[in-house]
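Standup notes, structure subgroup. Blocker cleared on the flavin-adenine dinucleotide input:
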Amino acid sequence: MAALLARQGHEVLIYDEFAAPEPVGSGLVIQPVGQAVLAKIGVLDQAIALGTPIRRMIGGTGAARRVLDVTYDPSGTRYGLGIHRASLFETLLSAARAAGATLHPVHAALSTDSGYIDFAHHRGGPFDLIVDAAGAGSPLTPLKARALPFGAVWATVPWPDETDLPTDVLSQRYENASKMAGVLPIGCLPGSSQPLAAIFWSLKTATYERWRASPLSNWKMQAATLWPTFAPFLEKLEGHSDLTMARYRHGTLFRPIAPGLARIGDAAHQASPQLGQGANMALLDALALAEAVARQPVGHALAAYVRSRRTHMATCQMLSRFLTPLYQSDHWLPPLLRDRLFAPLTSVPPAPRILARLVSGDLVRPIRG
Ligand SMILES: Cc1cc2nc3c(=O)[nH]c(=O)nc-3n(C[C@H](O)[C@H](O)[C@H](O)COP(=O)(O)OP(=O)(O)OC[C@H]3O[C@@H](n4cnc5c(N)ncnc54)[C@H](O)[C@@H]3O)c2cc1C
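Run returned:
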């Protein structure tokens, strides 16, 4: 957002609460739709150099039955880009800085008021436009998202030598929908040539403290029993704090604007990452808002931004809400439907093509108008 607006000639100030940009969090997939935005910002080649292509998503149950199998594009032209958050962040921040935006760390926004932003000890502004990109915990958004019962513990680990998992596949293993382990190849961190994997293990948020209190070796054994292929990815984990609990929420602001203020990304809509669209939607929001601002005065641009993103955003949110219980729930029915009904159907044309478009993020037009 900062890079795009600064290139239009606007003076852009980025406030962030962190003390310094550093590698936090784990990996994610930038889908073809998000890659198109990175290309518009001019950083796609940089992101591709750090990330790694994900050509297929495969998930199976303990009985070795394949229940998820999506190939992005048989010709190999389109793929997801597995990338560490820090690599994506550094890529975008360098573009924003190169375009003339300035970063002001240690600035936790508390509230906004008539074009001003209030921080702990001072007030910034006045601004023609405030963009709330402060994510799921933004204090500036009225969005009240519903906490989902399941989240996941995530870790970034070196890609082990002793695995035969393909490096261009997001691989998952399930037991019903109450257990899920996954391995996502995510390329390297900036300045390193060590290939990495983001690994995840589905966990009910209510059981997190119990999980932390029991020896990590117990969990490693449980995970390796569910999916022996997972074991080499767990070897470098020494303690519970090597894994981060991610809590998932669901919620949508259908009017993410107010006079002089627009919300983008998780500040406007949140979903569990089953469909892998959150960061991509944040990128699309940024592009849609920047394009709207380029065409008209801010007052009209905000309404145009909302209109241009409404259908795609609502579709992704709805599909994500529908898909999540198939992969994360205690109930017996959703995984039964997944395994016995949806899995066989997904191999019948045109389902593979529709599924590929769904995960690519462009089943419906991402930005209208
Ligand atoms: C475990 C997990 C896996 C995921 N996998 C995928 C995936 O594969 N593909 C995908 O597209 N999405 C994925 N997502 C979703 C994706 O991470 C989010 O949708 C995306 O990061 C949202 O981007 P954002 O810029 O809105 O917010 P964030 O990435 O949360 O960034 C918010 C920024 O605002 C700053 N900030 C916060 N509060 C304040 C404040 N008060 N004042 C100033 N600054 C503040 C933060 O420091 C941060 O820099 C995943 C999410 C999780 C939890």
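Discussed briefly. The first helix runs from residue 2 to 7.
Next: hand off to the docking folks.
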